[in-house]
Design brief:
By secondary structure, the protein is an alpha+beta fold. It contains 15 helices and eleven strands. Residues about 15-20 have low confidence and may be disordered.
Length: about 425
């Protein structure tokens, strides 16, 4: 079985290498705008315009304004289309637009089949360059965003993770909720989001464009220059990120009457451009598998998972659902210490690497997924990271993986959502 998995992974690597040789991503400048382009023979073309900065672009009092502005650009009408006309035309030609923001960046995306790409591009350019933010549509969108936030917050696994992240990073930019609160969203006007979009986001230095699809480089350059050549230039200084050291044993609790308890724990992680990042991710994958085996075997959890985020201030998060939180937390700390002491061996690491490569290959089958991967790599490190990922995974050594696990997991910050009586007077074991 081991040999079969290795052979399959090798096949995937060869296929990926061949595909990259034929359709290699490149980067070039068009009128001062950075463009990342990867040709594809598929009939769907995906275009994303990405805005750097995320939550560093606004204050806590304006939390949610970028999400509001980017959704507003897509949903509230343009110079040439009312909101209804934009939706109807999109439906007619099977063209999909989206706009959103997160902690590190925002985006507006176009996804359509090649047959209607010229139509889709014209609409996309109108959305980016001429959003009107009509007051009536803005009010409707405000209500939708508040409703969406409440729906998302009604899911305990999301809620407990949000509580953890915002509190662990309190005092930093990550302590700002990118989706906003009822209070902040209700205080943002149509004029506010119009000003924010035009004066904070829309500058050549802050944005870049990613295109994956069946189009030539020359055609793409012409479209970008004609549509976006008039975007203004404005100096953009990359924000400085300094994550707090999560070396304590703090727990944030919130009472909620739900059938099970939801628990999350967070540790520090290396930055994406660090040579420790991929070894750490491999180590966290080993930890996740070990936690799942140990805690489900002991019937301490309903589910448990560990993962390493890909963000400007990355972190490792453990998420679990349990009816026995004290015993589960004790076992988690014990399992981490044991893995740090014993480490992974060559055979285990080989299996982890193969799983990473196969999963990455499977997850990159759509042009949309390729676009998002290139964009995220550009935000966190550089776009070449996306293409180099398989080679970087296979370069990781046992020593690097084990050192990373011991270097970065030196303590955990916890959050708890559920029956707080079940952890009353409980002290989490120290590392």
């Amino acid at each position: 079985m081991k040999s079969l998995i290795t052979i399959i992974a090798a096949i995937f690597i060869n296929i990926t290498a061949i595909a990259q040789t034929i359709n290699t991503a490149t980067s070039f400048d068009v009128g001062g705008i950075k463009v990342i382009f990867k040709p594809s023979q598929k009939k769907v073309i995906n275009v994303g315009i990405y805005f750097r900065g995320g939550v560093t672009n606004f204050s806590k009092e304006k939390a949610g304004i970028e999400q509001f502005a980017l959704r507003g650009a897509v949903e509230c009408g343009t110079q040439n289309y009312t909101a209804n006309a934009l939706r109807d035309t999109s439906d007619k030609y099977d063209i999909y637009f989206s706009g959103a923001s997160s902690f590190d960046y925002g985006f507006i995306q176009l996804n359509c089949i090649s047959k209607y790409f010229d139509k889709g591009w014209d609409m996309f350019a109108d959305i980016v360059m001429n959003p009107t933010f009509q007051a009536g549509e803005v009010q409707l969108l405000r209500n939708k965003i508040i409703s969406d936030n409440k729906l998302m917050g009604s899911r305990p696994i999301v809620d407990v993770s949000k509580i953890l992240l915002l509190n662990a990073y309190k005092g930093t930019s990550y302590g700002i909720d990118p989706y906003g609160t009822d209070a902040t969203l209700n205080n943002i006007t149509a004029a506010d989001i119009k000003d924010y979009y035009n004066n904070v986001l829309l500058s050549k230095e802050k944005l870049f464009i990613v295109v994956v699809g069946n189009i030539t480089k020359d055609e793409l350059k012409e479209k970008i220059l004609l549509s976006f050549g008039n975007i203004r230039s404005k100096q953009y200084d990359q924000p400085f990120y300094e994550a707090p050291v999560l070396s304590g044993n703090k727990i944030i609790t919130q009472q909620k009457n739900i059938p099970s308890n939801y628990v999350s724990a967070m540790s520090n992680a290396p930055i994406v451009k660090s040579p420790d990042f991929i070894p750490f991710k491999l180590g966290v994958a080993a930890l996740s598998a070990t936690l799942y085996y140990n805690l489900t075997k002991a019937q301490l959890v309903n589910t448990i998972n560990a993962d390493c985020s890909t963000m400007q201030m990355p972190h490792m998060v453990i998420s679990l659902v349990t009816n026995t939180p004290q015993q589960a937390i004790d076992e988690i700390v014990k399992t981490i210490k044991n893995l740090q002491r014993t480490g992974v061996n060559e055979e285990w690491l080989a299996r982890l690497k193969n799983a990473f490569i196969i999963t990455s290959f499977i997850n990159q089958q759509s042009n949309l997924a390729v676009t998002e991967n290139l964009a995220l790599s550009e935000i966190d490190s550089n776009w070449q990271y996306a293409d180099d990922f398989p080679q970087l995974v296979y370069m990781a050594s046992v020593e690097q993986v084990n050192n990373a696990l011991n270097t970065y997991i030196t303590g955990l910050t916890w959050s708890f959502l559920g029956d707080t009586n079940s952890i009353k007077n409980y002290t989490i074991p120290l590392f």
